[in-house]
UniProtKB/TrEMBL annotation, chain A:
InterPro entries: Ald_Oxase/Xan_DH_a/b (IPR000674), AldOxase/xan_DH_MoCoBD1 (IPR008274), AldOxase/xan_DH_MoCoBD2 (IPR046867), AldOxase/xan_DH_Mopterin-bd_sf (IPR037165), N-heterocyclic_Hydroxylase (IPR052516), OxRdtase_Mopterin-bd_su_IorB (IPR012368), TAT_signal (IPR006311), TAT_signal_bac_arc (IPR019546)
Keywords recorded for this protein, A-Z: Signal
Keyword Signal on entry: yes
Secretion signal, residue range per the UniProt entry: 1-34
Protein name: Isoquinoline 1-oxidoreductase, beta subunit
GO molecular function, one term: oxidoreductase activity
Native source organism of the sequence: Devosia enhydra
Keyword Amino-acid biosynthesis (UniProt): no
Start and end residues of each Aldehyde oxidase/xanthine dehydrogenase a/b hammerhead domain: 206-296
UniProtKB/TrEMBL annotation, chain B:
Highest taxon above the source species: Bacteria
The organism of origin for this protein: Devosia enhydra
CDD domains: fer2 (cd00207)
Coiled-coil annotated spans: none
Record-given protein name: Isoquinoline 1-oxidoreductase, alpha subunit
Gene Ontology terms, MF aspect: 2 iron, 2 sulfur cluster binding; metal ion binding; oxidoreductase activity
Residue span, 2Fe-2S ferredoxin-type domain: 1-77
UniProt entry tagged with the keyword Metal-binding: yes
Membrane-traversing stretches: none
InterPro entries (alphabetical): 2Fe-2S-bd, 2Fe-2S-bd_dom_sf, 2Fe-2S_ferredoxin-like_sf, 2Fe-2S_ferredoxin-type, 2Fe2S_fd_BS, Beta-grasp_dom_sf, Diverse_Oxidoreductases
Keywords linked to the UniProt accession: 2Fe-2S, Iron, Iron-sulfur, Metal-binding, Oxidoreductase
Length: 727, 153
């Protein structure tokens, strides 16, 4: 599908010295980090180096937040290089080198489930290029024709000549290829497509993985920060004298907002208290009188937004164009939007939907955003919570007015990301504070500061009207969604590009305004909209006398990727709409990031209305999968992510501020709520396109459960969290 | 003031305010960063350590309350990352982002020391205080059963 552009230059970078080892005067928090940043050996290209023992170190420009980038990137390169997997070591890519060499690694952005799906061409190319140069080096040294040299599992051979890659690394590094080799087609793989355990797992069972929160620098102090509790509001003044004698307190620093309306990663108005210990900084900050100007947000609440959305839904929205976005090729999406109002007017059987709604949700990564900055006259070192090391490095340079050549941003593990690591100003805060106090500083956001000031997943409202024909199938459909003005796209995904063939479709969109920063959030848009569309489908099927799964199969006829998923759901899940009193099965299928994900949920509902989720079964079609084990782990993870929001989530906005900002009030799914069975099956088309896997199992989860609850209890739940619904 | 803690079998002297939450004493003063901060209000379990055999949230108890007691952190679970719980965690590829996992492992270790063959219900109860935003719960549940088997063998 989408292939990113890449430049050949990236593979031709030659350096005879050791790769990207950064020599810096800070205390290495652990051996793991020391190993990760320095790779010995000869660099063949920016992506990999090989040492004398034939150990291959592969650099990953994407960040590792549990999704497996630190394994999948090395896998793609090792596949082409052809080295034993046991010889592969992971190293962090050097952000400074990336930024100051015309984006050496093409991109360091990590999100949208794209590390594998969109980047495999150039990553595999890096491995193939290195392999070819090793072959050429051997051919030259041995004086044999190139086509006689075989490179396999770290060994070069030609007739009786044999040597390891490591023996030829220095010569290979000096070679420029006349022509870059093509990458392998699907099916020629020996490593991709097999179950590989993620390389970072052992570091995460003994506490040795280093997160930004864990970095220690000589002479470092700690800072707690507070932005205005009403987003967009500004800190007007604060009374440091009132707290300056509290234990450990060193200084207060105002973080000045430079732009009137900051974009996502600009520094927002805030104040920091610096102390000898983080808890001292946090306590002192809590005690410090702060005067804020709340701005327009103070008038906005869940209620006011809800009222605005309902009145918008009563009117007409902007008509959306049909959209591309499905991997299914060549089927008729049929829109004919102008005919729809008339057809609904004259319908003999009209179905009028009620209003569905999903609220604000925060990322609430287990690791609260944190950053360490050491700003010196001649260099800046930063460790931070980011899903894009290159962009964050540029932001730090911008914040301090420094040249990027002297800014070093070191990768650490991310304690979750889910999109939250994109719209982040914590490294700007750390840099600004360190510059102001002249010492290295560690900023940790309190959980309340994190959730209250996060770039939130926006709320969505939606409803529909449909006319049904004699066969019970829809002849015309109109949907009207209300999204958030800053990211209207979030109210579009999975709506206009739904796969269902309905001869006349019209999709309208309206927008509510708010002061709340909005951000990417694990399958943005599809997560909320799938909830609405896939319950609408069940309502339409029911009104037309169709089995909901048969309805979906019927209306995607000829669309192979969807049919593959839907038929698997029907054949392999034990599908039935008749499980008996208090029990129900429900289904939903949503595409996001090029992957079609189907979920079949089995639930029981007690007489008192308690919901038990007995089983969740997933069927995923991502085209190809390079590491099925990791694909399944990610599917489980994204499924439980959305399950958590569906059952317990929902931020409460009152007078402009979020009031449930820690885990006592913003509830998460826990072990006792986890369904006994969560099963994932991969049903791949293996047909030329690659879908992402970090997110797609989430979106079908809440609607499948809501549909199952309907069959179990007769009650339809149109909003989340379910725990607040009355059944 | 000078405080002596017994951490992972070693006496460690630190200079701290006795009211300092134990979590920050472990991280900032004793320099053990495996124990994590997640909420500060005993709701998430990221800061779980074992004190005298019980899993405890270290973020909201004062360091003074740990004096004279046996304190264990993730760093003290094994020398070589090979405690049955750690092996089961690696085998079933439990950790994702990994941030919650020190706390999860400490809760699991404490559970298995008291209940060597826990039922699903006992696992649910013992692990209810540990949130995982990456949703590794099904694998944690399976890995605790696996660890119980490994410990028996
Ligand atoms: S940090 Fe202690 S329970 Fe969350
Ligand atoms: S592994 Fe990420 S929070 Fe549990």
């Amino acid at each position: 599908m989408n292939q990113m552009k890449f430049t050949r230059r990236n593979f031709l970078q030659v350096s005879a010295t050791a790769a990207g080892a950064m020599v810096i005067g800070f205390h290495m928090p652990s051996k793991a980090m020391a190993q990760a940043e320095g790779s010995a050996g000869t660099e063949i290209n920016a992506w990999l180096s090989i040492d004398a023992n034939n150990i291959v170190s592969i650099a990953t420009p994407q960040t590792e937040m549990g999704q497996g980038a630190f394994t999948s990137v090395p896998m793609m390169i090792a596949e082409e290089l052809d080295v034993p997997w046991e010889n592969v070591r992971h190293v962090f890519a050097d952000a400074n080198r990336h930024v100051n060499n015309e984006n050496l690694y093409t991109t360091t952005s990590t999100g949208g489930s794209t590390t594998v799906s969109r980047r495999h061409p150039y990553m595999m190319q890096a491995g193939a290029s290195a392999r070819e140069r090793l072959r050429q080096a051997a051919a030259t040294r041995w004086g044999v024709p190139l086509d006689q040299v075989v490179a396999k599992q770290g060994v070069l051979s030609a007739g009786s000549n044999q040597g390891t890659y490591g023996e030829f690394a220095a010569e290979a590094a000096a070679i420029t290829l006349e022509q870059e080799p093509a990458i392998k087609p699907y099916g020629d793989w020996w490593l991709l497509g097999t179950d590989v355990k993620r390389l970072d797992i052992p570091l995460k069972t003994n506490g040795s993985a280093v997160f930004a929160t864990d970095v220690e620098v000589e002479g470092m102090v700690y800072a707690a920060v507070a932005a205005c509790p009403v987003p967009e509001g500004k800190v007007v003044s604060f009374d440091f004298d009132a707290i300056k004698d509290m234990p450990g307190v060193i200084q207060a620093v105002e973080l000045k907002q430079t732009k009137d309306t900051p974009t996502f990663t600009d520094l927002r108005s805030a104040v920091a208290v610096v102390a000898e210990s983080w808890y001292q900084a946090k306590n002192a900050l809590a005690a410090m009188p702060i005067v804020s100007d709340f701005g327009r947000g103070a008038a906005i609440s869940n209620e006011s937004q809800n009222a605005e959305a309902l009145s918008l839904l009563a009117g007409t929205g902007v008509v959306l164009k049909d959209e591309e976005g499905n991997p299914g090729k060549g089927y008729d999406k049929g829109v004919n939007q102008d005919a729809v109002p008339g057809l609904l007017e004259s319908a003999t059987k009209l179905v009028v939907g009620e209003v569905y709604h999903r609220p604000f949700e925060a990322h609430a990564t287990m690791m609260p955003p944190a950053a360490v900055a050491d700003v010196k006259e001649d260099r800046v070192d930063v460790w931070t919570f980011t899903q894009d090391i290159g962009r964050s490095l540029n932001e730090v340079a911008d914040q301090l007015g420094r040249d990027t050549t002297n800014v070093f941003l070191h990768q650490t593990y991310l304690g979750g990301g889910f999109g939250g690591g994109y719209n982040m100003d914590v490294h700007r805060q750390a840099a600004a504070i360190s510059a102001a106090i002249g010492r290295p500083v560690k900023v940790i956001r309190s959980r309340e500061e994190d959730i209250g000031g996060d770039s939130q997943r926006p709320p969505v409202w939606g409803t529909y009207k449909a006319a049904l024909g004699d066969d019970g199938l829809p002849t015309a459909l109109m949907t009207h969604f209300v999204g958030e003005e800053k990211m209207p796209n979030f109210a579009r995904s999975s709506v206009a590009n739904m796969p269902y063939i309905i001869p006349n479709r019209r999709h309208e969109l309206s927008q509510v305004q708010s002061h709340v920063p909005i951000g990417y959030h694990r399958a943005p848009g599809a997560n909320s909209n799938g909830f609405i569309i896939e319950q609408m489908v069940d309502e339409l099927a029911q009104a037309g006398g169709w089995d909901p799964l048969d309805w979906r199969i019927k209306l995607t006829e000829g669309n192979e990727p969807w049919q593959r998923v839907l038929l698997a759901m029907k054949e392999k899940s034990g599908w039935t709409t008749d499980l008996g009193d208090g029990e129900g099965m429900g289904c939903a299928v949503v595409e996001s990031h090029g992957t079609i994900a189907g979920c079949v949920a089995t639930v029981s509902v007690s007489r008192r209305g308690q919901i038990f989720i007995d089983k969740l079964q997933y069927f995923l079609n991502s085209g190809y999968t390079i590491n099925p084990l990791n694909a399944i782990e990610q599917a489980e993870s994204s499924a439980i992510w959305e399950l958590s929001h569906a059952m317990f989530g929902g931020l409460d906005l009152r007078d402009g501020r979020f009031v449930n900002t820690n885990f006592d009030s913003y509830q998460m799914l826990r072990m006792p709520d986890t369904p006994p069975v969560v099963e994932v099956q991969l049903v791949n088309s293996e047909d030329g396109w690659w879908g992402g896997l970090g997110e797609p199992a989430g979106p079908p989860t809440p609607p499948a459960i809501a549909n199952a609850i309907f069959y179990a209890s007769g009650t339809r739940i149109r909003t989340t969290p379910f725990t607040k619904a009355t059944i | 003031m000078a405080i002596t803690l017994n951490i992972n079998g070693n006496d460690v002297s630190i200079d701290a305010d006795p009211q300092m939450p134990l979590l920050w004493a472990i991280r900032e003063k004793a320099g053990l960063s495996g124990t994590k901060f997640g909420c500060g209000i005993a709701q998430c379990g990221a800061c779980t350590v074992i004190i005298d055999g019980s899993a405890v949230r270290s973020c909201n108890i004062p360091v003074a309350s740990a004096v004279g007691r046996q304190l264990r952190t993730i760093e003290g679970v094994s020398e070589n990352n090979d405690h049955p719980v750690q092996l089961a965690w690696q085998d079933l590829t439990v950790p994702q982002c990994g941030y919650c996992q020190s706390g999860q492992i400490m809760s699991a270790v404490a559970l298995l020391e008291r209940t060597p063959e826990p039922s699903d219900r006992e696992i649910d109860q013992a692990m209810a205080g540990n949130i995982c935003r990456c949703g590794t719960y099904p694998r944690i549940r399976a890995a605790i059963h696996r660890a119980a088997e490994l410990a028996k063998a």
